[in-house]
Amino acid sequence: MNTRIEITTPDDWHLHLRDGDRMQAVVQHSARQFGRAIIMPNLTRPVTNTAMAMAYRDRILEALPPGNTFQPLMTLYLTDTTSPADIDEAAAEEHVVACKLYPAGATTHSDAGVTDLRNIYPALQRMAETELPLLVHGEVTDPRIDVFDRESVFIDRVLIPLREQLPELRFVFEHITSSEAVHFVNDQEQNVAATITPQHLLLTRNDLLASGLRPHHYCVPILKSINDKKLLVEAATSGDARYFLGTDSAPHARHEKESACGCAGIYSAHAALELYCEIFDAVGAMDKFESFAAFNGADFYGLPRNSGTITLEKSSWTVPDEYDFAGERLVPLRAGTELAWRLSDD
Ligand code: DOR
Ligand code: ZN
């Protein structure tokens, strides 16, 4: 059995870094683990244009530990008023690599998101022309739809028509959670890929609801069934180039999650690679880990693969109960428990 693996430096293709002191508190975790990360634009004031994205990028670079070469890859937050000219500007800036679709009301800071895809059709068309990928939060917000069905209904109502109308648009179905999503992605021959988070590969809704209400296991899209998780693990560990790593690490202060109305988001940046490694190891697919973590995402985005390497070794360590979060507390995934794999610092 492998007790040590060296792979090409991986990237995180879906990350929430927040801003200001909170960003300063968490960015080191991602910067230690990854070469690059796609930075989500759902700040309190969303990142809706290229100038805002570039200013945010500067703030992230300033917050990095000295000498660290982590590269933030920026995204724009689409609104009902995003225009083709906004897309042209983004496409001309090498540091902006995609645009994010938040259906209005679907998740944290999504109120300014898109209320109807028809409103941004000209922008989407320009994205297809300029080959700027669309990153999709794939859930309907219709209150008549059960929360566990929001992703599968989104496939039927939005993604299937979008594929028919704009087959050239390249998109990433972000943080997929359901068997329906895996089937949808498997059916697409080109231009569609998907990210998968560690929590959706490790946990099910039982871990959220079956032995007390676990607010630190609450994220959106919500954790699904045991069967959904099985199919996600099969997809992630299959070696299929359409699937790649995206943690969706989303820090919220402890008191914001342990609340009568708790925030959605799971923090995994402290141990992202170790968590994924555990999953690949458990199903005997360590030979597929490098493509999932370091090749497939770069290839989809048309970016060079990283040139460095990292090493993971089978050597247990205990995740802290909490991290400092700009004077607040941040409870990480698997807080206080032992992990089998460790990212080596040498
Ligand atoms: O659980 C989530 N948290 N899902 C998202 O889509 C957003 C994220 C956040 O920003 O907290
Ligand atoms: Zn996210």
What does this structure look like?
This protein has 346 residues and is α/β, with parallel strands linked by helices. It has one domain (12-307): TIM Barrel. It is built from 12 helices and 13 strands. The protein has helices at residues 20-33, 50-63, 84-91, 121-130, 150-165, 179-187, 198-202, 205-209, 226-236, 254-257, 272-282, 289-301, and strands spanning 4-8, 12-15, 36-39, 71-77, 96-101, 134-136, 171-173, 192-196, 243-245, 309-318, 323-325, 328-330, 338-343. The strands form 3 sheets. Strands 2-3-4-5-6-7-8-9 form an 8-stranded parallel beta sheet. A 3-stranded antiparallel beta sheet has the order 1-10-13. It has a two-stranded antiparallel ribbon with strand order 11-12. The longest helix is centred in the middle third of the chain and has 16 residues, at 150-165. It starts with a strand and ends with a strand. The mean pLDDT is 97. It binds (4S)-2,6-dioxohexahydropyrimidine-4-carboxylic acid (DOR) and zinc ion. The site of (4S)-2,6-dioxohexahydropyrimidine-4-carboxylic acid has 10 residues, from loops. (4S)-2,6-dioxohexahydropyrimidine-4-carboxylic acid (DOR) binds at residues 16, 42, 107-108, 137, 219-220, 250, 264-265.
